[in-house]
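Troubleshooting: if your tokenizer reports a length mismatch, compare your output against this known-good record of 148 residues.
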Amino acid sequence: MSMKGVLLVDFLERGTTINSERYCQTLQNLRRTIQNKRRGKLRMKILLFHDNARPHTANRTHEVLESFKWELFPHPPYSPDLAPSDYHLFPTMKKWLATQHFDDDLQLQEEVTNWLKMQSGKFYEEGIAKLINRYQKCLILNGDYVEK
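Known-good structure output:
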């Protein structure tokens, strides 16, 4: 998720979990997507904000990010409420999903992708803007869990 919207949608196959190898593949896909959709952006500073999940902290992941020259925005441990997808994107999507019916996984994936594309730039800007306030609270609490 960026200030302008979702750059890449990547669904895992049913029954699979994310690991460092898969996450690195997704990062490489993201880099290609930025190169294609946001021309010239890769020459600028890329600031990536992700949590401290194992695939994100693995040595291989760090190697990939270093090769891209992307900067990591620090994510304090034990602060799950700092991910804009968790506090902004998913709750809104969940409300929409509650009113939908899908015949199969493929239809679900197509409709979710369309829903993400239909959200306004302002919607994504609001989610990122909320991060500033949440991050400041987290820093004031020395990285402790931030309540809603």
